[in-house]
Design a protein that fits this description.
Blueprint: H1 2-23, H2 25-50, H3 59-68, H4 77-100, H5 109-129, H6 136-144, H7 152-175, E1 193-196, E2 199-202, H8 212-222
Antiparallel strand pairs: 1-2
Length: 226
């Protein structure tokens, strides 16, 4: 049975990449759109069955990132899960400290300052730890607005991330797209910044694709492969 499933999976992968190469960009667009929609549908269905509030606004960008750039470090399971959890902790701690100090939250000068600080601290933390996941900044904002009611909400957030990542691993494997089980294959280095003789110059990277996933990203982004 295992051999049969392996061979069926291989046929599915070969068919997927044959369609990508010969049918063009629309195959990948359908793959990205369908999987993004399925992720939110699965979350909503499980939330409906369990009455757990699993749908968080910041997970929408995460879903798109995971299926649009699967080979990037910021789309990896580690960065996705730990990014959202750390951002949620920073946001909740910031809000609780504001209440402890008697500061006004919401759309006041003090409240806006709290929002700005939590997002800024989240950016510093992700950059320092290399747990890079841009949508997590939205989670910090949501938490500092009081939309994560207590520490138990982090468990619900972790479950929601887990559901999305399990689906991503399964569907990427079936399509033969390179996607890690946990840690990223390699850390991201900004493709738009290069240092020459100590000076920083900005440019648009156009490196040749080294993996099937890189090739797919070029087809989606540019409509062709270098």
């Amino acid at each position: 049975m295992d051999d049969l499933l392996w061979h069926l999976g291989k046929i599915a992968r070969l068919r997927f990449w044959y369609q990508v190469r010969h049918r063009g960009r629309w195959v990948l667009l359908v793959f990205i759109g369908l999987n993004s929609a399925l992720s939110i549908f699965f979350l909503g269905l499980i939330a409906w069955l369990t009455s757990w509030p699993l749908i968080f606004p910041s997970l929408g960008p995460s879903v798109f990132l995971i299926f649009y750039t699967p080979s990037r470090a910021m789309s990896s399971p580690r960065n996705t899960l730990l990014g959202h959890l750390s951002a949620g902790i920073i946001g909740i701690v910031g809000l609780k400290l504001a209440h402890l100090l008697g500061l006004h939250t919401g759309l006041t000068l003090e409240g806006i300052s709290i929002l700005a600080l939590t997002v800024g601290i989240t950016g510093i933390f992700m950059s320092a730890t290399r747990i890079l996941h841009p949508p997590a900044a939205s989670t910090a904002l949501i938490a500092s607005l009081g939309m994560l009611p207590g520490w138990h909400a982090l468990l619900v957030l972790a479950c929601a991330c887990g559901i999305i990542l399990i689906q991503a691993i399964i569907f990427h494997r079936l399509a033969g797209v390179s996607y890690p089980l946990w840690a990223p294959f390699k850390e991201d280095i900004s493709p738009d910044i290069k240092t020459i003789d100590g000076n920083v110059s900005f440019f648009a990277s156009r490196k040749r694709p080294s993996t099937l996933a890189d090739m797919a990203e070029q087809i989606v982004f540019r409509g062709k492969v270098d």
